[in-house]
């Protein structure tokens, strides 16, 4: 039986990064991953295959189409007859995915990580460690890392199939649906809804919660909702779905909104109501791997499960279901196994929504900070007062800095506007070092850049914004 120091089950952002880092640290590493695209093994998990990467590729293509149609004229560029070749657009998305998933396979080779394609199942504990069935081959490993990720949550009233799709189906419609329903106004719902609206669909988003993006700062969610509604996304909040039926031509959804029963008909329905931990096929029950009441693998602060030598990271342990959180856990665990001080700072994990305008935040919201009894001051600065944003012809949104009024320490930064997915990075770095609003305000920012809005928002916490 082949033996390894570390065997990783799952080749998504948590698993493949853990495998690479463990190999860098000198371990003999193998990774078993079951994902297939087009009947072939494809490393990278949900994120690279059917999540982060293809959704961003489609967001980018659809945004360019929208820009050409509605904005090019304002730049003095006349374009006649712009139309979408959806097959080509999907093909470009697929080639981006191919490049990146192939890149992970290359990195495995480069780092001498043995790759198995198929299911990984915990079999039994042995003298040498854990025996794992890796795609039909029994191997033994001193440390096993469970990184089996998550799957889309199904709505019992609307099981996936036919015209009712989850993320992978929603990234592969072969025709732009005329009427698209989306259940769930979370990150995935608004991103995918935005893609198809830009390509011509009439999009209705049904959300059970009473308001939009409740985890974001109130000012940001209010501004984002205003912008999305202006674009034509039709949101309904506080909705209760009572029936979903489908036939050959589409889906009928009945729901209650403000005590009124409403019926709607869609060509396609995306259900994006969150994700559930994926542990099927892992042999968890047979070996007694402890899960919590929601099915997440239970771990302690060092990613140790109840089984000695078995660890878990990424979506399957819960917390923020984000690729970068999963990756950091992969690094931290590999380093811990090597006797180093692996650590993830969960207080400063950036959140990004890649809509237009983009939304990004890290740390505490103003409300959250106040609820913790902190003495809070805030500074907000709009993109409309920024030269680069004017040049871009995109002045929507603002940056808001939330700082401790006693110590000046930055508690959170909240953004809605152009390219804020990139702007959040510097604030995360400053927060990681426990930096203050003054630190951010005194950092020289290149002119003219969108990043000057971040500096001005920091100055505004002390009522010293220079360009307002
Ligand atoms: P996964 O990526 O789910 O990988 C788990 C892997 O394990 C899969 O390949 C699976 O097939 C495999 N597996 C499962 N069980 C077994 C088994 N028993 N044996 C072998 N293999 C197994 N996050 C962001 O940070 N930014 C984004 O922009 C973003 N966009 C997203 C868009 C969409 C549409 C979706 C659905 C998700 C998005 N996410 C995004 C979330 C992100 O994809 C996840 O947080 C991330 O993939 C989690 O990584 P993971 O390694 O824990 O799990």
UniProtKB/TrEMBL annotation:
Enzyme nomenclature, EC number: 1.8.1.4
Domain of life of the organism encoding this protein: Bacteria
Co-factor note (free text): Binds 1 FAD per subunit.
SUPFAM superfamilies referenced in this protein's UniProt entry, alphabetically: FAD/NAD(P)-binding domain, FAD/NAD-linked reductases, dimerisation (C-terminal) domain
InterPro entries given in the database record: Class-I_Pyr_Nuc-Dis_Oxidored, FAD/NAD-bd_sf, FAD/NAD-binding_dom, FAD/NAD-linked_Rdtase_dimer_sf, Lipoamide_DH, Pyr_nuc-diS_OxRdtase, Pyr_nucl-diS_OxRdtase_dimer, Pyr_OxRdtase_I_AS
Protein name: Dihydrolipoyl dehydrogenase
Keywords: Cytoplasm, Disulfide bond, FAD, Flavoprotein, NAD, Nucleotide-binding, Oxidoreductase, Redox-active center
Protein family according to the UniProt entry: Belongs to the class-I pyridine nucleotide-disulfide oxidoreductase family.
Segments forming domain Pyridine nucleotide-disulphide oxidoreductase dimerisation: 349-458
Cofactors: FAD
Residues annotated for FAD binding in this entry: 56, 120, 148-150, 315, 321-324
Pfam families given in the database record: Pyr_redox_2, Pyr_redox_dim
Binding site for NAD(+): 184-191, 207, 274
Domain FAD/NAD(P)-binding stretches: 4-330
Location in the cell: Cytoplasm
Disulfides per UniProt: 47-52
Biological process annotations from GO: 2-oxoglutarate metabolic process
Catalytic activity of the protein: N(6)-[(R)-dihydrolipoyl]-L-lysyl-[protein] + NAD(+) = N(6)-[(R)-lipoyl]-L-lysyl-[protein] + NADH + H(+)
UniProt key word Disulfide bond: yes
Residues the record marks as active site: 447 (proton acceptor)
GO-annotated molecular function: dihydrolipoyl dehydrogenase (NADH) activity; flavin adenine dinucleotide binding
Gene Ontology CC terms: cytoplasm
Note: The active site is a redox-active disulfide bond.
Enzyme class: oxidoreductase
């Amino acid at each position: 039986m082949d033996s390894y120091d570390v065997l990783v089950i799952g080749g998504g952002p948590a698993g493949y990064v853990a495998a690479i880092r463990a190999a860098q640290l000198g371990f003999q590493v193998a990774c078993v991953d079951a994902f297939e695209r087009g009947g072939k093994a494809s490393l990278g998990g949900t994120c690279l295959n059917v999540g982060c990467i293809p959704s961003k590729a489609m967001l980018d293509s659809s945004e360019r189409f929208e820009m050409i149609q509605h904005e090019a004229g304002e730049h003095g560029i006349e374009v006649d007859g712009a139309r979408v070749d959806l097959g080509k657009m999907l093909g470009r998305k697929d080639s981006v995915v191919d490049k990146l998933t192939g890149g992970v396979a290359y990195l495995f080779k480069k780092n001498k990580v043995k790759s198995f394609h198929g299911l990984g199942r915990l079999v039994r504990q042995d003298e040498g460690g854990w025996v794992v069935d890796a795609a039909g081959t029994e191997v033994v490993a001193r440390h096993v890392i469970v990184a089996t990720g998550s799957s889309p949550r199904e709505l019992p009233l609307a099981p996936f199939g036919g015209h009712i799709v989850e993320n992978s189906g929603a990234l592969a419609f072969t025709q732009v649906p005329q009427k698209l329903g989306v259940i769930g106004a979370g990150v995935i719902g608004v991103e995918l809804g935005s893609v198809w609206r830009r390509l011509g669909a009439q999009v209705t988003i049904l959300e059970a919660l009473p308001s939009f993006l409740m985890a974001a700062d109130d000012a940001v969610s209010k501004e984002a909702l205003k912008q999305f509604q202006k674009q034509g996304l039709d949101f309904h909040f506080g909705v209760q779905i009572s029936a979903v039926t489908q036939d050959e031509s589409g889906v009928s959804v009945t729901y209650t909104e403000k005590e009124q029963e409403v019926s709607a008909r869609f060509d396609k329905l995306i259900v994006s109501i969150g994700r559930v931990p994926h542990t099927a096929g892992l042999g968890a029950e047979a070996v007694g791997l402890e899960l919590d009441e929601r099915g997440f693998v239970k771990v302690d602060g060092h990613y140790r499960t109840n089984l000695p030598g078995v660890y878990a990271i990424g979506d399957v342990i819960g917390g923020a279901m984000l690729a970068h959180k999963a990756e950091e856990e992969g690094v931290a665990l590999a380093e811990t196994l090597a006797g180093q001080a692996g650590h993830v700072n969960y207080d400063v994990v950036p959140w990004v929504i890649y809509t237009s305008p983009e939304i990004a935040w890290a740390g505490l919201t103003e409300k959250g900070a106040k609820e913790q009894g902190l003495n809070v001051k805030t500074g907000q600065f709009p993109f409309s007062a920024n030269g680069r944003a004017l040049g871009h012809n995109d002045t929507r949104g603002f940056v808001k800095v939330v700082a401790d009024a006693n110590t000046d320490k930055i508690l959170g930064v909240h953004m809605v506007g152009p390219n804020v997915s990139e702007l959040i990075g510097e604030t995360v770095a400053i927060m990681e070092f426990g930096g203050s609003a003054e630190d951010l305000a005194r950092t020289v920012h290149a002119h003219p850049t969108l990043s000057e809005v971040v500096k001005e928002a920091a100055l505004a916490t002390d009522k010293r914004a220079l360009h307002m």
